[in-house]
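Run log // design_07
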């Protein structure tokens, strides 16, 4: 590896004695010797006196030559012919050439044919020659390094860093041209890899890249492969995005039409004042809105998305202050055992609400996915656990007993190696029994890193925690998998309950799931129950517990405490 030292000379690292090689093609012996004397201390010199000898050296050592010093007047052929042939041959095209000449008119032609520089005859003083040669080699090696790093090796498109730079340059030289930032994604590309193999998947990416370049290069547009299956395109404003996408999709499918589906996010006629990366982030946001859709494949970034993005950024910025200021409130939704004739309060679920001092009540459907995607959900979950334990401990102290409360444990939480210790300490420090705090783990969590999740769940169950599988029925796991999972309660997904009780809903499927719970000898909780009809049907089928607005919405802690007192009076 080469390093540059303070005097500007390129040197090899300690222990590496190899010098760069310079081929001198000069027919006059005296001139060759002058050049060798000037350069021999720093470079390994290969002096030859004819075009034929030069060609022989290049044939054997093209990959080792750092520079060619080329005289134009050789005994067997003209130097310009050698220069032309070098630039036409891929093996020698990248070798920099400095022309040695006293012919001023030949200088222009030499540069047009690809020479980097020229040294006039008679030669200047050694310091000038040495400086020109050193600088030429440095620039050439820097250019080669850029060539290696600016292109994606598979598709030949720009890599992301260079793409953004060239896109910014386009704006500098075309400030008045309306431009589009486009993000092109392959739907379910991982499945393409798994079904058809990496070689086929790579061919798809190469075909997409070729089609993109063909579509936009004529107008000055440029393209980039940002990640495995994501492409960025910056180009003058397009008039027909459907035709653009259809052309790319046709090329992607090749002879296997129908296997490859694409989606396109468009940030149209981008504002030049907005940072380049931000424009493509916006196009990506648009593309993700049609992820998985079978009817839509093109989406445009608009004012609504912009306002949503700004809103999300504000929530992220204010998260820490919200935690410190206890803006997050824990609500409790009662659970009822519906097996007795009169339903009995048997537990509750802890649900978080954000009561913002300016924005009011913020929907969990907004902030929870946002925090999951940005790694903040672990902090929020621990806050909810602490608050829940605090309330349970207060009620236990007041009334001598309390109903068990379940808290959510996210997929991210399950990957925490300290999770078991954290939950154990929370319960013991709060003076609670493990049965006071139930843990809800989503069905989908069991399918990701299943071995680790199951191991952690087994540890939690051993010390006494009750494990509820949340969102059961959302379609992730197989029956065989369910039969082997360590769970104590199945909790039926709210969306599933709503769907089966709609007109033409499949109540048979509901019955099958209840029977699965009976087969596994675990009780089932149905959440989202809002009507007497739903309650009665679930009871008849054998569902053990119910949660939903039919009995109560989620309640603030003080109201839930009052609710529990009233239920206990009724039961008494």
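design_07 sequence
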């Amino acid at each position: 590896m080469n390093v540059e030292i303070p005097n500007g000379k390129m040197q090899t690292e300690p222990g590496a004695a190899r010098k760069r090689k310079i081929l001198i093609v000069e027919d006059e012996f005296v001139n060759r010797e002058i050049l060798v004397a000037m350069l021999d201390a720093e470079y390994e010199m290969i002096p030859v006196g004819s075009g034929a000898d030069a060609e022989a050296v290049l044939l054997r050592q093209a990959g080792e030559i750092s520079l060619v010093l080329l005289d134009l007047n050789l005994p067997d052929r003209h130097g310009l012919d050698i220069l032309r042939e070098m630039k036409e041959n891929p093996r020698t095209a990248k070798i920099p050439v400095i022309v040695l000449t006293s012919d001023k008119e030949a200088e222009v032609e030499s540069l047009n044919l690809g020479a980097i520089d020229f040294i006039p005859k008679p030669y200047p003083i050694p310091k000038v020659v040495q400086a020109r040669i050193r600088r030429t080699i440095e620039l050439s090696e820097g250019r080669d390094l850029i060539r290696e790093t600016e292109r994606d090796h598979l598709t030949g498109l720009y890599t992301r860093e260079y793409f953004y730079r060239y896109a910014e340059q386009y704006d500098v030289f075309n400030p008045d041209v309306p431009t589009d930032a486009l993000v092109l994604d392959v739907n379910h590309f991982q499945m393409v890899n798994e079904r058809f193999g990496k070689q086929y998947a790579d061919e798809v990416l190469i075909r997409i890249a070729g089609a993109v370049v063909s579509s936009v290069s004529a107008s000055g547009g440029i393209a980039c492969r940002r990640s495995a299956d994501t492409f960025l395109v910056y180009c003058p404003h397009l008039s027909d995005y459907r035709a653009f996408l259809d052309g790319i999709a046709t090329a992607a499918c090749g002879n296997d039409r129908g296997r490859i589906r694409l989606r396109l996010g468009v940030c149209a006629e981008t504002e030049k004042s907005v940072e380049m990366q931000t424009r493509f982030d916006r196009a990506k946001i648009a593309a993700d809105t049609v992820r998985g859709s079978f009817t839509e494949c093109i989406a445009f970034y608009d004012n609504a998305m912009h306002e949503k993005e700004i809103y999300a950024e504000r929530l992220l910025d204010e998260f820490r202050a919200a935690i410190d200021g206890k803006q997050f409130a824990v609500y409790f939704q009662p659970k009822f055992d519906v097996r007795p004739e009169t339903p009995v309060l048997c537990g509750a679920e802890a649900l978080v609400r954000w009561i913002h001092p300016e924005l009011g009540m913020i929907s969990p459907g907004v902030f929870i996915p946002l925090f999951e995607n940005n790694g903040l959900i672990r902090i929020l979950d621990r806050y909810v656990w602490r608050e829940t334990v605090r309330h349970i401990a207060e009620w236990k102290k007041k009334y001598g007993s309390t109903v068990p409360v379940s808290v959510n444990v996210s997929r991210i939480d399950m990957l925490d190696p300290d999770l078991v210790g954290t939950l154990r300490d929370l319960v013991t420090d709060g003076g609670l029994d493990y049965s006071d705090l139930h843990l809800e783990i989503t069905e989908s969590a069991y399918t990701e890193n299943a071995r680790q999740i199951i191991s952690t769940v087994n540890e939690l169950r051993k010390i006494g925690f009750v494990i509820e599988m949340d969102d059961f029925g959302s379609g992730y796991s197989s029956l065989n998998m369910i039969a082997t999972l360590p769970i104590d309660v199945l909790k039926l997904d709210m969306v599933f309950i709503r769907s089966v009780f709609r007109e033409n809903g499949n109540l048979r499927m509901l019955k099958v799931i209840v029977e699965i719970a009976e087969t596994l000898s675990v009780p089932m909780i149905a959440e989202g129950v809002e009507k007497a009809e739903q309650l009665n049907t679930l009871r008849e089928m054998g569902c053990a517990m119910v949660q939903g607005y039919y009995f109560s919405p989620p309640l603030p802690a003080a109201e839930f405490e009052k609710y529990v007192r009233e239920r206990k009076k009724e039961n008494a």
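The chain has three domains: 2-150, 160-301, 312-567.
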